[in-house]
Amino acid sequence: MPAKGKHRRPKALRFTRTIAVAGTGGAALALPLLGATGAHAATPAAAAQHTQKSATVAPAAAKAGTSTTYAVKAGDYLAKIADDQHVSGGWKKIYSDNRSAIGSDPSLIHPGLKLSLGAKAAAPQASAPAKPSAAKPAAAKPAAAKTDTASTATKTAAVGNSSGYTLPVDGATIGTNYKVAGSMWSSGYHTGTDFVVPTGTTIKSIAAGTVVSAGWGGAYGNQVVIQHADGRYSQYAHMSSLSVSAGQTVTEGQQIGLSGATGNVTGPHLHFEIRTTPDYGSDIDPVAYLRSHGVAVG
Questions:
Q1: pTM (two decimals)
Q2: Most confident of 61-70, 92-101, 119-128, 191-200
Q3: Which domain holds residue 72?
């Protein structure tokens, strides 16, 4: 009996240690399991918080594409409004968007006129990175446009050089045409052609000649009058600054000053006349004159 009991006790001790070890091992294994469960439980909460934050940001981005209405004030002109309001595309964009309200002459705007300045350019840029494949065709289009513009400019320059005559200003659109009737002009009609350009644009002599006068011209503001070989006179008015003086000889395309809004105007442009004498009242059609000398006028 004692031998049997002595034999059983060590087995019992080993069994107890095994359970204790198993229990300790179980506890040790439970700790990382609980930690993993806690980490797993935190993940949905973080994802929900991230989703909520993304949903809050989305409406803010949608508000960026709104347009602005601007009321014209005394002394305003389209180029000034474009600069002050940071309009992408400049005064030409404003005129294009509001042509029905402004009329045929972009230099004639009046206080109180409501202009739409369009959507801000920053809004559409957010979606661009989502479509990288669209970048390839977009890059091809401007290249074609530049080629067309360069080709047109080359043709115009070639006409001017071969005929001895050129346009008084490059890249301009025509505002008020010759002989348009109106009470705002003392003669009852417009005595020249207006080329709409922003202040500071280079004004050129249409052909070789001699400067007859250069200075202040009353309602015409700063003006230059040049006599040409065929006996005709060209006049350039409303300039912001002059580059020539009376008695000076000039060549075709030579800079004679910069465009502006001096004198009796509502906005910057070049008033251009062709005359049979150097004086007011002897005007003839300036566009027809340029075309007769091989100059293409838009």
A1: 0.49
A2: 191-200
A3: 66-123
- Between CA 275 and CA 224 the distance in angstroms is 13
Q: Of 173, 152, 161, which Cα lies nearest the Cα of 206?
A: 161
| 119 & 181 share domain | no
* Pick from 185, 257, 179, 269: nearest CA to 223: 257
Determine the number of helices (DSSP H) and then strands (DSSP E) in the chain.
6, 13
Q: What dihedral angle (degrees, nearest 10) is formed by the CA atoms of 161, 162, 164, 167?
A: -50
Interatomic CA distance for residues 78 and 96, integer angstroms: 11
- Say how many domains are in the chain: 2
**Which H or E run contains 203?**
strand 202-204
CATH code of 230's domain: 2.70.70.10
Mean pLDDT over the full length of the chain: 72
